[in-house]
Amino acid sequence: MALLKVEAVSKYFTSPGARSEFCVFKDVSLKVKEKEFLSVLGHSGCGKSTLLNIIAGIEAASDGYAYLDGKQIIGPGLDRMVVFQNFALLPWLTVFGNIRIAVKAAYPGWDRNKIHQWVQKYVDMVGLKGAEDKRPSELSGGMRQRVGLARAFCVGPRMLLLDEPFAQIDALTRGVIQEELVRMWEDTGITIFMVTHDVDEAILLSDRILLMSPGPEARIMEEMHVDIPRPRSRTSVIEHPAYYPLRNRIIRFLSRKDEDDQTKCVNLVA
Ligand SMILES: Nc1ncnc2c1ncn2[C@@H]1O[C@H](COP(=O)(O)OP(=O)(O)OP(=O)(O)O)[C@@H](O)[C@H]1O
Ligand SMILES: [Mg+2]
Fold first, then answer.
1. Is 53 domain-assigned?
2. Residue 237: which of 252, 224, 226, 248 has the closest Cα?
3. Probe target for ligand 1 pocket from 48, 168, 217, with the most ligand atoms within 8 Å of CB
4. SS3 content of the chain, % helix, strand, coil (to 5)
5. What pLDDT was estimated at residue 1?
6. N or C end: fewer C-beta atoms under 10 angstroms in the chain?
7. Cis check: omega of the bond before 231, within 30 degrees of 0
8. CA-nearest residue, atom 26 of ligand 1
9. Cis omega before residue 216 (within 30°)?
10. Could you read off the pLDDT of 51-86 as tens digits, one per residue?
């Protein structure tokens, strides 16, 4: 059974002063299996963050429903942790404090000692040992995103929702943190839903990629399985015979101007 099920979800926004509603995406349906790494790729503005926010329970769907483990998603919860592109750390708290606040929320019965040990475990896991007392303003982008990942993993969520988590990180650091993410994903057996517009990132990390058409009225148009064995590295991926056909198919899709052929969109729930 799928862990996450999104069923015919549509989202409309009304801009201030506008008379009509604007449809961001329409009838989006998808499923994510337990332990799967699924990515949604699409142009800027097609509604990727909006879709992720609906799954996170931060935003309400205009139509349709999303379910986690068969239970309708009606708000945010510690079973779905989000890692944002802009890090979203609390600026007045240290690295340790930013992670501790999540642990305290998830495990209210734990004593100080147990909380301390748990936070330290995740600080170490993301390679931030020695930086525990620094505040977000004193950290590089890569370090901030490591805090974001530690904060998300430390509460033991069912799903990790990643919204372009590496977009603001330099290319070299991005590669290192992507590898760390994959290691943590494999160690914990967590399920990941990631949105990105980076084709190579999607191929390197994902089991499956969904392509979203440009909005308005965006839809999920194609589904691709990444049949490249793990463990993967940047070099092993580009040397694999499946890489270029997959990459070319995605690039061709993203370069197409007219995505209005609605008969082509895939129904991933049926
Ligand atoms: N709260 C809001 N009110 C009105 N319109 C909104 C709101 N949030 C998003 N939108 C609009 O919905 C569309 C989709 O936005 P969204 O942020 O989901 O796109 P995205 O695919 O994540 O883009 P990017 O790749 O740039 O992050 C955009 O046209 C955006 O302007
Ligand atoms: Mg976005």
1. yes
2. 226
3. 48
4. 35, 25, 40
5. 80
6. C
7. yes
8. 44
9. yes
10. 999 999 999 999 999 999 999 999 999 999 999 988
Residue 168 pLDDT: 87
Query: How many folded domains does the chain comprise?
Result: 1
Band (270; pLDDT cuts 50, 70, 90): very low
For residue range 138-177, what is the model confidence (pLDDT) as tens digits?
999 999 999 999 999 999 999 999 999 999 888 889 999 9
Distance from Cα 257 to the centre of ligand 2, integer Å = 20
Residue 266: pLDDT above 60? Answer: no
> From CA 106, how far away is CA 166, in angstroms rounded?
25
| 217, two tokens | 């009225």
> Domain containing 232 — which CATH number?
3.40.50.300
Q: Report the alpha-carbon distance of residue 217 to residue 17 in Å, rounded.
A: 21
Any domain includes 200: yes
Residue 19 CA to ligand 2 centre (angstroms): 25
- Domain containing 142 equals 36-60+73-264
- Residue the block writes with tokens 């992507």: 178
Residue type (1 letter), 114: K
At 263, phi and psi to the nearest 5? -70, -20
Report which residue type is found at 237: V
Q: Which of 36, 29, 37, 32 is nearest to 2 (CA)?
A: 32
Main-chain phi, psi angles of 203, to 5 degrees? -70, -40
Buried b (16+ CB within 10 A) or exposed e, 59-79: bebbebebbbeeeebeeeeeb
Let me know: does 27 contact 220? Beta carbons within 8 Å. Answer: no
Judge whether 2 lies within some domain: no
The DSSP letter of residue 216 is S
